[in-house]
Amino acid sequence: ATPTAIMVGVGKGAENNILIKDAESLELGYKVNAVVLDKTGTLTEGKPVVTDLHWLVSQDEASRLAAVLYALEAQSEHPLANAVTEHLKVNGGTPVRLDTFESVTGKGVTARYEGVTYLVGSRNLLAEHAISLPNELEQQALQLQNQAKTVIFFARTSPGGNVTPSLLALIAIADPVKVTSRQAVETLQRRGIDVYMLTGDNAQTAAAVAQQVGLAHYQAEVLPADKAGFVKKLQAEGRVVAMVGDGINDSQALAQADVSIAMGKGSDIAIDVAKMTLITSDLTSVPKALQLSKRTVQTIR
Ligand code: ADP
Ligand code: MG
């Protein structure tokens, strides 16, 4: 496209709350035939709220342990952690001072406190520490996940084996789908574009969200590097791929994609890496951006 067409395109983008950082994405957008969407914060509001906190210990112990859970999640920057700290602000007491803290990418966080290892996170994190889920809790978790809620677990174990590994609490967190997400997915699909969802979340929750937005293709429990790998795989099949994400965990995939789109409400890293930013974080701007590219390129023909 001519420099003038590009300038007009960038201006039209701005009018539609689409910030375009470089000309190349305007020139490529119309060729996109696969769109990869992150779930949390991209398809969903990204403002998760705790709906259930189910303690598996006595009430006394629960109020003592709440201060440990609070401390763990207060140190994490994950949106789920934010939901937990907001919840515990009300009745979680004062967070304890942890001895160590470690974040386990895509799985959760762990910390040492008074010689005991505490963990908050996914089923996979529990499994890594050889903590199993009783059947009854398994059923409860499934039921919550089928409501599109994310279930995380709080547990403790000890390196020396002097504390029996045990599950302390089950936490369910709801993060509603944005009202515009379904329409955005439909518009893209109507134009013959394949739409995929990738998430670090578990399979049941992913399936429930996919159904809510009308998506058939999704992958759950995807680690950040695998998100980039997924984009690469589509490209190897000859697809022109747009990646849309909001998180630090999306930045590798954004860098890999042909067209990269960040949410305006997303993390600074995602916005830095992406060539386009949707200022209002509304996904209906994705088909608009691709359409804008088409018009920009067509002006030279
Ligand atoms: P997404 O791709 O949906 O943004 P992430 O890769 O960031 O997901 O996280 C994947 C999973 O890891 C979450 O669904 C959750 O189970 C677990 N997790 C990660 N960080 C935390 C945390 N701070 N507290 C609890 N769970 C966490
Ligand atoms: Mg996200």
UniProtKB/TrEMBL annotation:
Organism: Spirosoma taeanense
Subcellular location(s) of the protein: Cell membrane
Protein's recorded name: P-type Cu(+) transporter
Similarity comment: family membership: Belongs to the cation transport ATPase (P-type) (TC 3.A.3) family. Type IB subfamily.
Domain of life: Bacteria
